[in-house]
Amino acid sequence: MVIADRLNILVASVFDNYESYSGAVVAASAIAYTIQLYMEFSGCMDIIIGSGRMFGISLPENFRQPFLSKNAAEFWRRWHITLGAWFKTYIFYPVSVSRMVKKWNRFGRKHLGKYLTKMGVTALCLFPVWLCNGLWHGPRWSYIFYGMYYFVMLLCSAALEPVQ
Prior knowledge:
Layout lengths: L1 H15 L6 H32 L17 H7 L2 H16 L2 H13 L2 H24 L3 H19 L5
Helix pairs in contact: 1-2, 4-6, 5-6, 6-7
């Protein structure tokens, strides 16, 4: 929390007057903002987990070194783990076993091949997760675009994986 509060001084001053700064300072501030968010969320979760332990309550870990991830999907499995688990349980899994996905899977395997079928299933299952993730952060277009940005990133990551 101490580190996040100190980084906020830099981030807020640059983001509030970005036209007064060069590209390198804005880029450094964007990196500082990423570190600030991580420190803030991770620090708060450490405080909450520690407070829970004082009362005999065991809470799950919520951040597991996400910046050491090898790809975007692993990053999101390590960042805000409990929120990701909720989306997986209540949105991803129900969509993945839905009639629409099963129909696409049958159609795709018959007419399109493994790769396009896999991409279609991946898109159908990830889209509602990341739309809801954006809406969870707030009912604004910027958050919806945030969710769609990560949807596209994860879809591109899946597209570059070898088909098995």
